[in-house]
Every structure is written in structure tokens, then in C-alpha cells.
Amino acid sequence: MLKVEEWAEIRRLHRVEGMSIRAISRRLGVDRRTVDRALSSEDMPVYHRAPSPSKLDPFKERIGDLLAEYPDLSAVRVREILQQEGFDGGETIVRAHLRRVRPRPTQAFQRMVYPPGRIGQVDWAQMPDPIPDPVGKPRPVYALIMVLGFSRMLSVSFSFRTRLVDFLRCQAEALTFFGGSPHTVVYDNLRSVVASRRGAEIVFNPQFLPFAERYGFRPWAHWPREPHEKGAVERPVRYLKGNFWAGRRFRDLDDLQVQANAWRDTVANVRHHRGLDERPVDRFAQERPALLPLPEEPFEPEEIVFVRVSRWGYVRLDTNDYSVPLLLAGARLGVRLSATEVRIFHQGMPVASHPRCFGRHQVITRPDHQNTRPPSLTSLSRCLD
Fold it and tell me: Which of 127, 172, 179 is nearest to 153 (CA)?
């Protein structure tokens, strides 16, 4: 029987190397009539293996009748019934057959209609390509997308990281753009939001809850592996990648955000939304009055960490080294990291501050910190007052 590989080689030898039927027959050791059939057929040989008989074959019709009457009948119970009727096979073949033939219900999802101001949905999305960081090295970049349920008004903020402080900063930017907060915000089971979950019992991240309290919204974490519960933001992720990201270049994170803001205001939020048959910006005019008011003082997220000073007078944060007064070498210090600033404390007293660096493996030094004649802590305190 001619194999597919032989069929392809016969045709290659004839077409590419110009060999005759006889020469091919001698080369491959096959009959000349076989070579002739291979050359005259444009379709590769396809073989169907005859199914081997199974002990279950005489009982398949009976299984169909059982499932028609009891669709959820287990493999164990089916085998017990068949054994009473003469079946002497194992449970494995019964279970495998049931997987193929058992009727499966179609999942049906009710289309959600959201009142104005009630629901917002949030998710991170990694962008397809890296962009240059502040020192020119390519780094992965992430988008935090927030969508309002009623209007489908969209906001997007970018970050090189997805830590809690970055998550809160990006969401605060979204709420500022909307000019208010929805009453409920739906999340995936992000670690920034959900500390632990057991079924319907959710423990929210205690560092996230002050943010939700400040803006007045109720956080809601949808069930794992149920993306339809936040479909309003799942689709914009694909839309962002396909409509905004594709075919563009970005110098850095600031340039990316500027271009994204322009796309948001001139394309995404003014397009005709097929699901709504309206423009998001027009529906937002109805939704805006229903949003919760923003707090008087904007939330300024900070990350608090504790680090030890190296013998050279530096603390390492996100691979970058920041200088502190040299007399603090070896000390354990507290650090408050905001989106723009690094503030360093010793026993509750501020000892250094630097602009935040989002490059990697950089050294940020204040010359006065490298004084080799260390002053006393008292004089340091006076200098910092």
C-alpha cells in the first residue's frame, strides 16, 4: 500500500528531477503501475483504519436509551445496569463512550443591561510589544482598562508594572477622567484586589479597601473562569490591541499615554457602538450625573517597603540604587514609593528623597549624601528640618 511519504517523493522525483516512471520504480523499489497511479492522482492517499470491535458495541443503543431518560446517569451506574444485561467490560470504556455521546446543555448567558452609574469594570492587559523605558531599554508594558457599564465610556492608563501602587494610580486616573465613580466596580480575581477566595467567600486585599472606601464604590470580584461576567471590559481589551496598538510606535511611556488619550477621545469614545447603537460619549452625558462624586482630596497611592542600606550608602528599589546619607550604612530604613517620588525614613524621620526612576539598574545619587565624614544624627536632624 502506497504511503503518503512515497506518494510525495514519487511526484517530486518526476516533477523536480525529471525522472521517468521506470527510473522512479527502480529508485524506490515500487511497481511501475504504483508510480503511474501516484503521478496521475492529485490527491494524496488517505487511509481509514477499520474500527476495532469493542465489548461495548452491542450495548451502545441501550446506553443511548438510558441517557435519553436519565441524562446525568454516571458511568458507574451505567456499567452496573449493563452488567445485569451481560456486559463484562471495564468502567474506562463506558466512561470514554459517555464523554462522546452524553448530551451537553448549551450555556446561555443573559445579556446584562446596566442602569447609569451602577457598574464599572476593570482589568489589566499586557500589550503585544515592549516599549523603551526611561533609559531606552525595551520593557513589557501593561494597560489598565476601565469601562462604564451603561455608556461603555472607556479609559486606559499604562504602566511598566502591575503592583498595587500602579493599579491604584491607574484606576485613580480613570475615575478622574470620568469625573466620578460607579457604585460598583467589577474585577477579575486580581491579587491587588482579592487576598483570598473560597467559593463565594472573598477576603479583599486590606491595602486595596481604603482606596475603595475613599471613592465610595463597592468592589466585586467575579467568579473564576467566568469572563462573561465582565464582558464589557474583555471586548475593549481586544479593541485596544487591534484598533489602537497595531501599527503605532511609541518613544516612551509618556508618548504612549499621550497617543492613547488622543485615541480615547477622538476614536474609542466617539465611535458608533454596535451593541448600544449609540456613541459612548453621548450615553455618558446621561451617566455622568449618576456617578458618585470624587473625594475632595485625590488618593495618592504609595507603596511602603523596608530596606537595608548598603555599605556604600544606597538602598536598592526595583533594581535601582538611591543614595542616603552615608552614616546610615547598614541601617534598616522605611521607604514610601509614590508614582513620582521616593521618600526614605529612619525611625520615622525623613532622611532622603529622590524623583522616582522607572528605568532599571540605575544609580541615583545626591552628592551631599556621600560625605565621608558622617555627621551626628542630631546634626542630620537639623539639616532635614
Answer: 179
The angle at the Cα of 270, spanning 228 to 248, to the nearest 5 degrees, equals 85
C-alpha cell at 66: 438510558
The CB-based long-range contact list for 80-86 (8 Å cut-off, 24+ gap) reads 85/59
Residue 24 backbone zone (phi > 0: left; psi -120 to 50: alpha; other: beta): alpha
Burial class (CB in 10 A: 0-12, 13-18, 19+), 23: middle
Strands 303-308 and 154-159 come out as: unpaired
Q: How far is CA 206 from CA 146, 189, 350, in A?
A: 22, 15, 26
Judge contact between 94 and 82, C-beta under 8 A: yes
Q: Are 270 and 279 in contact (CB under 8 A)?
A: yes
Alpha helix (H) residue ranges in 187-293: 209-215, 231-239, 253-266, 280-287
Tens of pLDDT, residues 51-61: 677 888 888 88
Angle between helices 32-40 and 21-28 (to 10 degrees): 120
Which cell numbers in the block locate residue 163?
503592583
Of 74-88, 129-143, 191-205, 368-382, the range with the lowest mean pLDDT is 368-382
Q: Give the CA-trace dihedral at 14, 19, 20, 26, to 10 degrees.
A: -110
Using alpha carbons only, give the angle 254, 188, 283 rounded to the nearest 5 degrees.
70
Please answer whether residues 148 and 277 qualify as being in contact, where contact means their C-beta atoms are separated by less than 8 angstroms. no
The CA-CA-CA angle for residues 154, 188, 336, to 5°, reads: 85
Helix %, strand %, coil % of the chain (to 5): 40, 20, 40
Q: Return the pLDDT at 380.
A: 45
pLDDT at 379 over 80: no
Could you tell me which residue, 48 or 166, shows the higher pLDDT?
166
